[in-house]
Amino acid sequence: MMTMRKRKTPKRPKNSASWFRSKLAWVLMLLVLVFLVQAFVFQDEGLYRLYQLKKQIKASEERIEALKVENARLEAERQRLLDDPEYLEKVAREKYRMAKPGEKVYRVIIETKKEQ
Questions:
Q1: How far apart are CA 13 and CA 18, in angstroms?
Q2: What span, in angstroms and rounded, lies between the C-alpha atoms of 7 and 19?
Q3: Which of 40, 65, 79, 92 could disulfide-link 98, Cβ–Cβ 3.0 to 4.6 Å?
């Protein structure tokens, strides 16, 4: 046969002064916890600021890598312009529309038909 166990009810302080003190202790601990979280997370040197700075550092490092690649490409272009006179002439003619003395440069304009 099964026996029924009696449920244990949580004990309450016997007088209201000790009940008030226990609630006050919990409120004070909660306030201290909120203050510590605010101090360590949201202050100038807090965790959120640290996260922002790490994110900024990562973005800066990615930008540096992109600029290094661009710099290498430009240096290769510079070296090619210095070493290859035919390429230099091609760039001068196409990009800067230069011509040798006595040459005539014609510019072809292609007109597109407007839809009616």
A1: 6
A2: 22
A3: 92
